UniProtKB/TrEMBL annotation:
Domain Circularly permuted ATP-grasp type: 1-73
Species of origin: Nocardioides albidus
Pfam families in alphabetical order: CP_ATPgrasp_2
UniProt name for this protein: Circularly permuted type 2 ATP-grasp protein
Top-rank taxon: Bacteria
Length: 95
C-alpha cells in the first residue's frame, strides 16, 4: 500500500488487516522516486526508477563498483519498482 496513492477503501482494508495482526506489517516513509526516460512500445516515456548501488568489503577496504541495479516501474506513474510487484530491473554500468 502506497498511502498517497491509495483509495479510501484500500486504506480501510489495510487498517483492519494491521489491527488484526500488526506484527506482519512494516511502515516506511514514501520516498519520491526520480523518473528516467525508457523505451515503451518504440517511444520514450517517463518511468519511476531507483538505483541500488553495491559495496563489498574484502576484510580491509570497501569496494564500490561502477554500477548497480536499476529497478523500474513498468507503468507510467506507478511507484512500485520491485520485481515481486510488477516492476523490473536491469544492471546499470557507469562508463
Amino acid at each position: 500500500l502506497v498511502g498517497p496513492d491509495a483509495s479510501p477503501e484500500e486504506i480501510d482494508r489495510t487498517r483492519a488487516a494491521i489491527r488484526e495482526d500488526p506484527s506482519r506489517w512494516i511502515v516506511q516513509d514514501v520516498v519520491d522516486l526520480s523518473t528516467q526516460p525508457v523505451v515503451v512500445d518504440g517511444d520514450l516515456g517517463p518511468r519511476h526508477v531507483d538505483l541500488r548501488p553495491f559495496a563489498f568489503h574484502d576484510g580491509t577496504r570497501v569496494i564500490v563498483p561502477a554500477g548497480g541495479l536499476t529497478r523500474v516501474a513498468f507503468e507510467e506513474g506507478e511507484r512500485v519498482v520491485n520485481s515481486s510487484n510488477d516492476g523490473g530491473a536491469k544492471a546499470t554500468w557507469v562508463i
